[in-house]
Description:
This protein is α+β, with helices and mostly antiparallel strands. The protein folds into three domains: 2-107 and 250-273, no CATH class; 109-245, no CATH class; 294-424, no CATH class. The protein is built from 14 helices and 14 strands. The strands form three sheets. Strands 6, 7, 8, 9, 10, 11, 12, 13 and 14 form a nine-stranded antiparallel β-sheet that branches. Strand 4 and strand 5 form a beta hairpin. Helix 1 (2-15) runs parallel beside helix 11 (261-273) and helix 7 crosses helix 14. The protein is globular.
Amino acid sequence: MKTRRIxxxxxxxxxxxxxxxxxxxxxxxxxxxxxxxxxxxxxVGLAFQHRHSPSLRLAxxxxxxxxxxxxxxxPLLRTIPALATIAFLTGMHRQAGQFGLLxxxxxMQASLDFFLGYPFRLITAEGARILVNLVGYPVERxxxxxxxxxxxxxVDPPCSxxxxxxxxxxxxxxxxxxxxxxxxxxxxxxxxxxxxCLVANILRAAALFFPESGMxxxxxxxxxxxxLAFFALAxxxxxxxxxxxxxxxxxxxxxxxxxxxxxxxxxxxxxxxxFLPARTQSPPTPEDLKTLSxxxxxxxxxxxxxxxxxxxxxxxxxxxxxxxxxxDTLIIRRITKASRMLHPSYHCLKAEGFTISDSSVRVDDQGxxxxxxxxxxINEHFLVTEKMRDLADDKQWTxxxxxxxxxxxxxxxGPWEAETLLTPLSKNHE
Length: 430
């Protein structure tokens, strides 16, 4: 029995090595992914406290699905059947809350920001507009900005509510595990958590509109305090719903099952697949990205891509060029389709160890909007500006998430071009 367990563990480690390596890299990319370790620790702790019988048949199916998708499924989605295999082998799948915590250990925060950042900000801005109008102020919504008599207040990325959403999901899974809720009860509790999260974030945005617009003056610490207060209220309401769902029931006794030879064979077979060379598909190439000679009236000099940048460019569905503009660095990315590979620049800078300030939307001399923020690393200080534009018409976006949803539903309107400018600043910049 011990020999089979050792063989199964070794085979699983070899099979899951690609996702383990990806997970490790995501932990150190500066995008807040280590918070997933909290969910993982809670899941493991609860699994040791409440043990359940495994399901070898489901474990065989999940590891087979993992093997079938290893070269065709993105790493984040590929990790789900890997975690499911572990859950089925340990019996964690018997408790919806434990399984939910295990899934929340996935490094998904950057992906949530990319896919849901703009939609959540749009919902938050519209909800805040309605609430502020109800108290007698004729606020208009301009995209994800609120306007009142020429004063613009932006619902910026930190105010999208995605961090509150992830924390609410963590609390939902934890409550489901503590109250031993079924999968159906946990699903309903998750829907309630989503609704409470949206309401809490809308209330926060509406409350912060008044100090942000200069109508009232509040201490700076209250900006975070107001958000925490609304989240605390939502959490208390969520805990009350979880308590109402709870019905004490006798737990099933833990039953040990021998790991079958068939499962070991599947695990070994999948582990061998990971050593095969992956076949890559060449991305579509847009019309040639011509080399710039000037930028904003200044002479430019093209910079050769580093080996790391060349490796990224080979799989990028478009073209990449980098220029030196005086002391500034200009990055041009042209893309032909909606793709996760057009990362927001602050994700890339975080991965390089930079600290990113809150962003703001500004307008240039031509009336075009662009995103602006500061990036700092030890003695390096940069002002970063970024915008995306449609080369076929005059449409423009200040953030990648907004561009992505437009490109996804309007695939024939491209190609598109992302322009990022890094301007070095002195240590004493404001």
